[in-house]
Amino acid sequence: MRTFLDIFGQTMRTLWAHKLRSFLTMFGIAWGVGSLLLLIGLGEGFRSGNVKQLNTIGENIMFIFPGEVPPIPGSPVGAKPYFLTYDDWVEISKTAPHVAKSTPVINRGDIRAQSEYQSFNGQVFGILPVYNQIRYLPQGGGRWMNDQDEKEERLVAVIGWESRKSLYPGRPVLGETLLLNGLRFQVIGFLDSTGKSEFSATNQRVFIPLSVMRKYFPQKNTDQAPPDAVSFINFQPTTKEDHLLARDEVRKIIARRKNFDATNEDAFRDWDTIRNAEMVGKIFTAMNLFLGSVGLVTLALGAIGIMNIMLVSVAERTKEIGLRMALGATKRNILTQFFLEGAILTLVSGFVGLGAASAFMTALNQLPAPPGFDPPQLVAWSAALAIGTLALFGIFAGLYPAKKAAMLQPVEALRKE
Question: In angstroms, what CA-CA distances link 6 with 323, 331, 342?
Fold first, then answer.
């Protein structure tokens, strides 16, 4: 134990004697480790922020919109438009086994909402009660619409967070009257804010029963639109893994009812948030692999730099090594000293880089993050990868020069100039 402490002390004195060289070596390693952790942390921030942004819409949500059927696939010239209808949704709800929940939606942005205090031009959505089980709509107070509201065509409304602020500034809202194009509704509930921005679309909406919307505010389209047209249909697959089956079932039903080929991809306008999340996840996984590979190369170059410095140190201290061995130092003592120098340079600089990256990410967490982006976070696997790689490279970078120093013969070493 005493011998080891003596060797450790000698190692620290040697490193201190070459402060600038030791500092520059450690700085390079620390910079590489810190950059690797920060870049992967930023990537994970983008990934988690994107997932949260999608979850503000709802989990496993799918949309299908009205579209156009091109006469020739890939050619928009002469495309014939088609509309989605309430009866299309009825057919989907009855004959699509992989669709768990669905609702037609009628969306109008030209309906004037007016309270006793203010008026507001937001969006009015006519939906079925199941809509809040498909989309993310955090209830802030009151209640959501139920089946009786839909069946009895009750004139009730649930308003979004921004709509509530604009229409009833600083006042109670439950039970209040809301005029939609002069038609009197009762406010039965309101929503909490969704997303990071108070001006997100959901926050500015007013929700009413679909039966009421169809009766008083039908879909506003061209003269070609049928009287029971809807803006789009929202649905969820039975499981996340069945989303492509659900999409294909819905497409086949629409194609059959509109008399076109279901294999014509250009005829459909739909959005699969599950597929979108998978694609984004693959992009960030590839990015993390790339950054990890770049980081490993950087760490390898740093280890080569340490090895080079240790080899220079062996060459500079050849006579010292010969003298120590002549005075009784064993090959093991020499091996241990040079190995410790390489290990200390590598591991200390690695932990400095880890600490600096962690401190910088903590500071960034105090700043407001833009929508769709979470603050960077220290990813455990990237830290383990960096430290583990450093340990392996550090062992090799210290062991080879140390072995070369220990193999010197005392007489030959003392003759070196």
Answer: 16, 15, 17
Kindly list the distances between the CA atom of residue 327 and the CA atoms of 9, 320, 339, 411, in Å, as whole numbers in the listed order.
Answer: 18, 11, 21, 12
Least confident stretch, 42-51, 189-198, 348-357, 401-410: 401-410
The amino acid at residue 327 is L
- Closest to 310 measured CA to CA, from 402, 395, 393, 396: 402
Collapsing DSSP states into helix, strand and coil, what is residue 317? coil
- pTM for the whole structure: 0.69
β-strand pairing of 232-237 with 99-108: antiparallel
CB proximity list for 330: less than 8 A, separation 6 or greater: none
Look at 8-17, 27-36, 118-127, 225-234 and tell me which has the smallest mean pLDDT: 8-17
In the chain, the percentage of residues whose pLDDT exceeds 70 is 76
CA torsion 374→380→383→386, rounded to 10°? -110
Res. 4: pLDDT tops 60: no
Mean pLDDT, rounded, of the chain: 80
Among 243-252, 266-275, 310-319, the minimum mean pLDDT is found in 310-319
Beta-carbon neighbour count of residue 38 at 10 Å? 21
All residues at 6 or more sequence positions from 131 whose CB lies less than 8 Å from its CB, including other chains: 103, 105, 125, 137, 207, 234
pLDDT of the residue at 2: 45
**Cα angle at 218 between 78 and 235, to 5 degrees?**
75
Joined together, the tokens standing for residue 383 give 């830290």
Distance of CA 188 to the CA centre of its chain: 35
What's the token pair of residue 166?
A: 């604009």
**Residue 250: its H or E element:** helix 243-258
The Cα 262–Cα 255 span in angstroms is 5
Q: Where are the beta strands (DSSP E) in 109-250?
A: 113-114, 119-120, 123-127, 139-142, 156-159, 177-180, 183-191, 205-209, 229-230, 232-237
Q: Which residue, 90, 88, 127, is CA-closest to 106?
A: 127
